[in-house]
Amino acid sequence: MQNVISVIGGANVDLSATLFDSFIAADSNPGKVDIGYGGVARNIAHNLSLLGCRVQLLTAFGSDLFGNLLHDHCKQQGIDVHLSTVAEGLRTGTYLCINNHGGEMIAAVADTEAVSVITPEWLEKRAGEINQSDFVVADTNISEAAIRYLMENVTVPLLIDGVSTTKSHRVMNALAKCKLPYLHTLKLNQKEAIAVTGETNYALAAQRLIDLGVAHVYVTLGSEGVYCRSAAEEWLYPALPIAEVVNTTGAGDAFLAGVVYALTKGLAFPQTAQYGLMAARATLMSVKAVNTEIGNALL
C-alpha cells in the first residue's frame, strides 16, 4: 500500500530570472525569465508525487487567474488538493528570484499572503485526515501558531522545512511555547540554523535544536553537503558531484522530499540524507524548481 503524505504550506507561481553576465545593480540586466509553479510545500508535494508517493497538499490558492492555474496544475501532477482552500480576495502566492549567470540566487521576494488563512482553526477541521497520513511535512510559510498546532496535535512523524532565516524563527518560537516540544525532523540551511539559534557554527546550532526537542536535524551546506544530527549520531555527507549548476531554486525542497521518500522506504537516519542529496542534485540541474526527471535519480 502506498504511503500517504500530507504536505502543508505555500504554493506559488515562480518567476525566475537568470543573468547572462555579471549582475549590475540599479540597471537592466540581460538575461532570461522563466515562469513555473513553486512554493516550498508545493515543490515538496510535486517531487514526492513524481517519486510515486500518494500526496495530499494543504494550501491556499488565491482567488485569481494564477490560483486557478496553480490548482489545475497540482491536480495534473497527481497531487490531491481536496483539503486545500481558495483564499477569497487574496493574491496567489508569487515567488520572484534573480540568479547570477552561474545559477546561484542573488535575491528573491516571496509574496505568501494567501497562506495566512492556514490557522490552527483551519487545521483543526482537517486534523482527522492529516493524522491518517504516514508522514506530515510543513513549511514555515504558515504562521507560528499553525506550526505550534501541528507540533502539539499531529500524531505521526512531522517534518518541517525552515524556508528562510526570517520564517525559521517561527519553528523556534513554537518549540519554546509547546507543552511537550517534539519534532521528528527539521531541515534548515546553514544560514538559517545559525540565525535561529544564535550559535557560531552549524554543528552547535544543530545540537541546540536537539536540546530543544527536535529529534533529527539536517543542515544543508550547499556545495559542502549536509550535516545530520540526532541525540545519538552526527554525520557530514559531502555534496554529490555535478557538472553544472543551472538553478538553485527548489534544491532544498527537493532535499527534504528525498528524505521523506527514503523514510517511506524504511531507511534510517542519517542514511536518509543520501536520498536528499540525490534529489537536490537533480533539481540543481533543472531550470525549474522541480525536475520532472527526479525519478531517474532516485528510483
Can you describe this structure?
- This protein is of the alpha/beta class and 299 residues long.
- It has one domain: Ribokinase (UDP-N-acetylmuramoyl-L-alanine:D-glutamate ligase), CATH 3.40.1190.
- Helices cover 35% and strands 26% of the residues.
- The protein is built from 11 helices and 14 strands.
- It has helices at residues 40-50, 65-76, 120-124, 127-130, 144-153, 165-177, 190-197, 202-211, 251-264, 272-284, 294-298, and strands at 4-8, 12-19, 31-38, 54-58, 60-62, 85-87, 93-99, 105-111, 135-139, 158-161, 183-189, 214-220, 226-230, 234-237.
- The strands form 3 sheets. It has an 8-stranded mixed beta sheet with strand order 4-1-9-10-11-12-13-14, sandwiched between helices. A 4-stranded mixed beta sheet has the order 3-2-7-8. Strands 5-6 form a two-stranded parallel sheet.
- A hairpin with a 5-residue loop joins strand 12 (214-220) and strand 13.
- Helix 1 crosses helix 9.
- The model has no long low-confidence stretch (mean pLDDT 95).
What's the short version?
The protein is an alpha/beta fold and 299 residues long.
Q: What key phrases describe this protein's structure?
A:
299 residues, alpha/beta, UDP-N-acetylmuramoyl-L-alanine:D-glutamate ligase, 8-stranded mixed beta sheet, 4-stranded mixed beta sheet, 14 strands, 35% helix, 26% strand
